[in-house]
Write a sequence for this structure.
């Protein structure tokens, strides 16, 4: 089972700024942690990052044809703005889990609303890089529990 991991805009900057909000790990380090956990769970993962809404939409649309079984997405700021990404998630049949490093409910008001959450299977927010690992575990147990 292969899971597609999509990191949204500015997450390529992780580790360099705002470590008090997003932690001190770089995106490469987070991807390594995700990949190691996936191996433990007998998944494979492909990790991608884009700053461009249309590229993320193309990845979502192509995900089934690329033989992914599920998607973990951190839409980053697009969480709060993108009807287009919401529509793309709603249009595909694969289960999608939304993750956030920070607890978006405890931050500025404009981050409280996720346009994408309602069309995802569920959301995990506030656990740093561990949010991605919880999402992998959710995929592991989704079919059985
Ligand atoms: O907590 C999260 O994972 C977010 O998706 C991160 C987004 C933010 O807009 C969401 O509200 C919550 C921001 C990602 C930008 O990451 C940066 C990392 C380092 C320096 C600057 C930005």
């Amino acid at each position: 089972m292969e899971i597609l991991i999509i990191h949204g805009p500015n997450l390529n900057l992780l580790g360099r700024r705002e470590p008090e909000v997003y932690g001190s790990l770089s995106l490469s380090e987070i991807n390594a942690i995700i990949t190691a956990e996936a191996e433990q769970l007998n998944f494979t993962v492909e990790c991608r990052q884009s700053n461009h809404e249309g590229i993320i939409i193309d990845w979502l649309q192509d995900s089934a044809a690329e033989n992914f079984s599920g998607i973990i997405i951190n839409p980053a700021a697009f969480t709060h703005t993108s009807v287009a990404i919401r529509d793309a998630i709603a249009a595909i049949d694969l289960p999608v889990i939304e993750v956030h490093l920070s607890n978006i409910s405890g931050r500025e008001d404009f981050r409280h609303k996720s346009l994408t959450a309602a069309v995802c299977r569920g959301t995990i927010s506030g656990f740093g890089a561990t949010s991605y690992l919880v999402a992998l575990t959710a995929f592991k147990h989704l079919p059985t529990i």
Helices lie at 19-22, 27-40, 53-62, 83-91, 130-141. Residues 22 and 101 are 6 Å apart (CA to CA). Strands lie at 2-7, 44-49, 70-74, 96-100, 122-125. The two ends are 18 Å apart (CA to CA).
